[in-house]
Design goal:
Elements lengths: L9 H28 L2 H14 L6 H5 L9 H6 L3 H9 L9 H4 L4 H5 L7 E4 L7 E4 L2 H12 L3 H24 L1
Antiparallel strand pairs: 1-2
Helix pairs in contact: 1-2, 1-5
Length: 177
């Protein structure tokens, strides 16, 4: 099994949690302001942003310093000019012990730590419950299975032949009935 070359220590992931928590707090403040104004289109946009943010995605406007309307937002640009720089800056104060299960499952961390095990590409949707989907093809699934199971080409061909023979046996059994 091959591991990605850029393995990050647990302190890096914990500092990422802190930065993402801060960004989530900023989004929650914006939600409260939009609710006070009763701005339903803005509330819809912000709720989708929060849903994707909870999956570990930093909204593009927070990455490039622009607000939802595409205008430069000095507050975000000055506070979060470089999210990855913020993560690196906070890393020094955090202990490097292994991540717990709840930490690994927070903010899509497992998928970020193991990109070679994701069979497909992540696509952001407008769903509040499932804001990120994986769009995949058969070739992506085969690639991931080869990595996980450490399969060689001969083993894969043998498995395919066995599956075809089982399908034929099943179809023959159905004909006999």
């Amino acid at each position: 099994m091959t591991k990605p070359q850029n393995i990050k220590p647990p302190s890096w992931w914990r500092s990422r949690f802190l930065v993402l928590d801060d960004l989530l707090g900023e989004l929650n403040q914006e939600i409260k302001q939009a609710e006070a104004k009763d701005d339903k289109p803005l509330l819809r946009k912000l709720s989708i942003e929060i849903a994707t943010h909870r999956q570990g995605r930093i909204p593009d406007r927070m990455r490039n310093g622009k607000n939802i309307e595409g205008l430069i937002d000095e507050k975000f640009q000055s506070r979060y000019p470089d999210v990855h720089g913020q993560v690196e800056a906070r890393k020094a104060d955090i202990v490097d012990v292994p991540l717990s299960f709840s930490e690994i499952t927070k903010y899509n961390t497992w998928f970020e730590m193991n990109p070679d095990r994701v069979a497909g590409t992540e696509v952001i949707t407008t769903s509040r419950n499932f804001p990120i989907q994986i769009k995949t093809k058969r070739s992506d699934i085969d690639r991931v299975l080869k990595v996980i199971l450490n399969l060689k080409e001969d083993t894969i061909n043998l498995l395919l032949l066995k599956s075809k023979s089982l399908k034929l046996k099943l179809s023959l059994a159905q004909l006999e009935i």
